[in-house]
Amino acid sequence: MSATRGVLAMFIAVAAFSWMDALLKIFSVHYPPLQVSAMRALASIPFVVLPLWWRGALHELRPVRIELHLLRGVLGIVMLATFVYALREASLASVYSVYMGAPLLIAALATWLLGERADARQWLAIGVGFVGVLVILKPAPGGLPLLAGLGAVLSALCYASAAITARVLTRSDRSPAMVLSFLVVVAVGASVAAAGSWTAVRETDWILLACVGLTGAVGQHYITEAFRHAPAATVAPIEYTALLWGASIDWVFWQVTPATNVLFGATLVVAAGVYVALHGRAAAHTNSAA
Fold it and tell me: Which of 270, 257, 276, 271 is nearest to 97 (CA)?
């Protein structure tokens, strides 16, 4: 039952983050990447704090392992800034196609840092997924620009590292504390870094910024819950549903469809991730039955 809750939480998180990312892509045209990162975090903080204040549960915001909260926040700054840059230069689905390598990175890092097992077939699948990422990064007309692709790769690496950190934090900290600490560190750090190039927020963007805050807070809460209730290798591949969201949003709002190499590479990445997830769950059931 706990794993099922984690899976459902990840589906909700991916949907919320996909719509938030579409808004960030709109902002990336008018504001520097670090400022967009700061705006995203600042907009979400009230949606995290106010419900807890209303319920008289502000004590849940107290962090335990401060150093890991800071590390996760710093990773978040780099993750968001490079992701926003990639969104500015390429389509949502193209960036997502590279970013979908993150679940494979999580599965790989989880074996090293968390002691979660992966056999030779899973490692082979992870390797196939990384080949898919290289296919996506191959420059092609109408495809993903190289710098945008490299930005997406760096963002994915930071995301995977932050997810592993979150998995460790769930052993000692409550979800609200993890969500708020992440947002506060990103808001403060990115604001300081963007101070020299800060651009005044346009009046027409305040409503969109509120929507960023809401979707970001919802996504952050449910992704934290997902990693709390299920193994990283189980819930991480659900990130692949973001490709469907990204392609749909691109087509509806920007009339853009993915290039052929992006589609082929994404297919390899998704197939590898699904195999790793299903094989991992089957192995877990076998071990528990034994």
Answer: 270
For residue 70, what pLDDT is reported? Answer: 96
Contact of 193 with 76, CB cutoff 8 Å: no
Cα 244 to chain centroid distance, Å, stands at: 15
Q: What is the DSSP letter of 100?
A: T
DSSP letters, 134-200, are HHHHS--TTS--HHHHHHHHHHHHHHHHHHHHHHHHTTTS-HHHHHHHHHHHHHHHHHHHHGGG--P
Q: Give the Cα-Cα-Cα angle 194, 200, 202 (nearest 5 degrees).
A: 130
> Is 103 within 8 Å of 164 (Cβ atoms)?
no
- State pLDDT tens for residues 59-75: 999 999 999 999 999 99
pTM (two decimals) = 0.81
Residue 166 tokens, joined: 């979150």
E strands, the chain, in order: none
Compute the distance between CA of residue 166 and CA of residue 12 in angstroms, rounded to an integer.
18
Tokens of residue 229, six digits? 């209730």
Per DSSP, the three-state class of 101 is coil
Amino acid type, 199: T
> Taking the mean position of all CA atoms in its chain, how far away is CA 283?
26
